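Lecture 7 notes: from sequence to structure.

We start with a single chain of 313 residues. Read the sequence below before looking at the structure.
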Amino acid sequence: MLVGVLIAGFQIASAQTPRTAEDYNNRGLERQARGDIDGAIADYTAAVALKAKPHTIATAYNNRANARMSKNDLEGAIADYTKAIESQPDDYENYYNRGVARLAKGDNEGAKADFSRAIEMSPGFWLAYNNRANARNAAGDVQGAIADYTRALELNPKYAEAYYNRGAARQSKNDLDGAIKDYSAALELAPRFSDAYVNRGQARQGKDDFDGAIADYDAALAIKPDDAGAYFARASARQAKQDLKGALADYSRVIELDPNSAQAYANRAVIKTLQGRGSEADQDFEKAFEIDPSLKPRFREFIEKRRRGKPTP
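Now the structure, written as tokens:
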């Protein structure tokens, strides 16, 4: 999960007919707050077309970029953040915001450069450390990411997302104990952080603590009852414990929530086979391979053993 928080130059909105760049900018913010994104963009565009102080122009470009981000217009947003930087090059927030847009676009190197520049200008800017870590993690520099998440937490020890993100990075390096510790810290700060429960459950499952994993998946589902991923994770833990009935129920729930989950159909087929429900298993395998033909080779050996009367979990 990438945590990217945009920073907007909010001002007091004005209900008067716009005359100046400040007026257009303020009305744009008012429209954006009401959900009229296109109207807001039109006002920010009017603002940047007028003569005004560099700070005002930079704010209008930044706000238009934020509005474009909400429409997933990443190219347009990056162009506007760049204009904001040109108008006000000493504002670290503009670099940070462009970094968020570049990160969302998959430009990890560009994002790292922007977050690094923001950090140079504001060394205590913990959000920039967190997001530079996200960029490093996405680029495969997991150790560098962990270092940045750690620095973000030194600057803001109450930032649950950084604990979560560092936990995920540690988990990717198979540091399951470190990951569990970080997810637990995130949950102490944000008790309804359902993804942290799911990830901690997966880390516990990696240590064969199936009961602990199931307890975490239960907690996640109590918060988000329609989380297909949490049901799938719990199903796999129940399957590992040979609780075939519970696993079958969970895989079925995954399919209800996500009818295109080929893996859930295939796993349910395995369980039905073990329960002696061969014809139903065939239907599930057929559906799984229809959705994702690449699964077929992975289950070929199991299916062959079943035909010989010797299926194994």
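Residues 10-14 have pLDDT under 50 and may be disordered. Keep this in mind for problem set 3.
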